[in-house]
Amino acid sequence: MRAKWTRTDRFSRLNDADHDPSTQALSIRDAAFSWEGGFGIEIAEFDLSARERVLLLGPSGGGKSTFLNLVAGIAPPSRGRIDVLGTDIGRLRGARVDRFRVDSFGIIFQMFNLLPWLSALDNVLVPLRFSKLRRGRVADARGEAARLLGALGIDAALHGQRAGTLSVGQQQRVAAARALIGGPGIVLADEPTSALDAANARAFLDLLGAELEAARAALLMVSHDETLAGAFDRVVRLDDIARVTGSAAA
Amino acid sequence: MSLLRLALLSLWNRRLTAILTILGIALSVTLFLSVEKLRTGARDSFANTISGTDLIVGARAGDVQLLLYSVFRIGDATNNVTWESYQDIAARREVDWIVPISLGDSHRGYRVVGTTTGFFDHYRYRRDTGLRFADGAAFDDLFDTVVGADVAAALGYAVGDRIVVSHGTGRGSGAEHDDKPFRVTGILAKTGTPVDRAVHVSLEAIEAIHVDWQGGGRVEGLQIPAERVRNMDLTPGTVTAALVGLKSRITTFRFQRFVNGYEEEPLTAILPGVALSNLWSLVGVAERALSAVSLMVIVTALLGLVTTLLASLEERRREMAILRANGASPRTVMALLTAESGMIALAGALLGLGFLHILLFALQPLLDSRFGLYLKVDPPGLREGAILAFIVLAGVVAGLVPAWRAYRRSLADGMSIRS
Q1: Which of B127, B232, B328, B340 shows a CA-CA span of 20 to 30 A to A211?
Q2: What pTM does this model have?
Q3: What fold is seen in the domain A2-245?
């Protein structure tokens, strides 16, 4: 009982601190990165407010994924400053970046989001394995995972099913539940709707939006699909804030 | 959810490849351990060719030479021990028992050993195993013989058969003691020692078949019939060697010194165990070659493991990217891969050990009866444990190669994995 008390206590405390609407979720100033091959990106300025939903539009191969890698701290900036929830991630090193990433971000990929051999529910629980912070915010991990799955329209009967056997649409919703569990400040999404038809894409974004609201998280989604713009607070064109450098073959 | 569980579930997802890899390692481990078992079994069998005998006494010779002709029946003695010396030694206070050995004749390629029935009581092999009769009993009559298991099997002898002894030890030397045939009274059970390949007769019988011989040939015009020989004095003039058992092992070295310094004639006494290990060090090259082969088998299996892991890496890039996006550090990714290879190696090693024991249980009686190779079936010892630990460790190290590649790649792939 005692442990639960502490957890609940921490939950409310962290909840308040992390999701103060006045806090900037993401702020990039004059950052650059290039892969070994020479292909890279320079970002002059980009901001994402807390609980804001931004659609970042750009053509395929236009550096969107590199942008996300940079934001998520997977690609370390060679210069400039990237602040995530008040922390300059360029200053974090090694495993601390990885921990910080899972503490701060929920990530949804374009496709192949899940570990196919884990059940839907276990997939949702993966971030809690690596983030103490997010684990601390959830008193009953499995209960919360089941709640999120339910809220995103995954039938309870499917929770125990291996993720690999679910449809692409279902998988994307499981991935969304995974991104949201434990209340990370920001959800990053890399073309999560590209494998869905327009109706399903719209439904997915609506469900995601409702849960983002509940979790008070910001959303940064990259896509080439302008028709999705309606579900966002703001639309930013990658061309306007960033410049691709090197051989832009990819 | 623990990392171990993640690794296990991921492995379970690729169970077919994993099972094949585990099987490959298991078979290699089985092969390695079997070769080890055979190697040590052969060495033990060899070292236990003769036991319970404290000293072997013969004419002055080198350790190994005396051992070779007295026990292995390889080569010939350059000199014999006179009957007087033999009697003298036999009468010593320290001596518990003494068994003479008289060599020089053969039967269809097998050595004939002139001895006493004490040989069947005192000859010990494999720690403390005595000779056993598969059929019949020890010789009793002058022209009785007891043949070893191999002799009986190869020549199809049964108790009651009559055989003729040849003069000399060369195969088909031509000179046959055909006027004095022997009757098989006993067949010894298989021992895996040179006893299996010997024809045993009494010391007197050796004298008896040679009464009308001189210097390797029949004395012209002289032929003494078998029946008349029975009434003659058949005390031997010499014996080739003697197996000696002492009342107390403490006196072994003193008694050896006594024999080596025997004044009447130059004699040598050897400790069979010491001479056997000297001899083994000569033939030990083969043993080392076996070790090298079995080591190569293990290396091959581990290379197979690395290959499988590297091959599976491609299909696991997605898995790595997902884990990275959800907070796994590259180090965690490495740990997952090495844990996997370690688990595969462990499973392979344990399965291999299981196979070995099944194999041992199944084949042990056959190896013992057919080859006289006695392999003990014991629970895995420290040595096996060390070998298995090495394999698991090597498995983990082998996993480092693909893990390092995955580490590099998971950094380069970032989150952009799409296929």
Answers
A1: B328
A2: 0.69
A3: Rossmann fold (3.40.50)
